[in-house]
Write a structure and sequence with these properties.
2 domains, three-stranded mixed β-sheet
């Protein structure tokens, strides 16, 4: 079977950041080095902006994917057709927004939802009504509770009620690093290390989900300043691919 990678467009998270030309060309360069065929799309799509169940369902946010600073020429229906034709997505679940603090990416879904398995998701919530994300996360949960996946099944939802902010600030800003923004490795889970008051509670919740993997805390302060977490700075490659570049 021939490996084929899809190369979606990238415009610096809605043209917010300059000097992204090398990033735009990186998939082309990397795939040439790996000797993998590349297929291109005009759709602007960022890895952290979508979550898949591997069975035809995709979750994303309207705030990001149909934002005029990215896909002004695509309607919601056209986006659904593009991901259906290219990725085999039969059902797109649209959340309204991501985190308030996630201005850099316009609300990436990986800060609010993580697929655990087909039909099973980890969802960011908060119980503090004074948190600026309280209402939007409540709305997200309501949408997900009322949706079915591509197989027609209701979603099993596990709530992540801990939304951690770093105790220290940078340029008078307190940064957030959601525990949902983790990376699943073969034998471990790389999870942000943020707030000592909440970390262990969140790690236990995640450990109870991934019982056969080891939780590995990753210092994430500077990742958060740059706009991401462990899940943002990693990307899986299929085992069959020769990764020597």
């Amino acid at each position: 079977m021939t490996d084929l990678f899809l190369h979606f467009k990238f415009n610096g998270w809605g043209n917010k950041f300059e000097k992204c030309e090398s990033v735009k060309e990186m998939p082309k360069y990397l795939l040439e080095k790996l000797n993998i065929k590349r297929f291109t799309s005009d759709l602007i799509l960022e890895g952290g902006g979508v979550s898949f169940d591997g069975k035809g369902t995709m979750i994303t946010t309207e705030q990001m994917l149909i934002n005029k600073n990215r896909n002004a020429s695509f309607s919601k229906i056209q986006i659904e057709k593009e991901v259906r034709d290219l990725l085999g997505i039969e059902k797109v679940i649209w959340l309204k927004k991501g985190l308030v603090e996630d201005e850099g990416t316009d609300g990436h879904v990986d800060c609010v939802v993580e697929y655990l398995a087909p039909g099973k998701i980890l969802v960011q919530t908060v119980y503090d009504k004074n948190n600026p994300n309280y209402e939007l996360l409540k709305d997200n949960l309501k949408i997900l509770n009322n949706e079915n996946d591509a197989q027609g099944n209701k979603l099993e939802i596990i709530e992540m009620p801990y939304l951690p902010y770093f105790p220290q600030s940078y340029n008078n800003t307190h940064y957030v690093s959601p525990y949902t923004n983790y990376y699943v490795a073969n034998k471990s889970i790389l999870v942000p290390e943020v707030d000592p008051k909440l970390d262990e509670k969140a790690y236990k919740l995640i450990q109870d989900i991934y019982i056969e993997r080891t939780i590995v805390p990753i210092p994430a302060f500077y990742q958060a300043i740059g706009g991401g977490g462990p899940g943002c700075i990693t990307q899986q490659l299929p085992k069959s691919i020769n990764t020597s570049v």
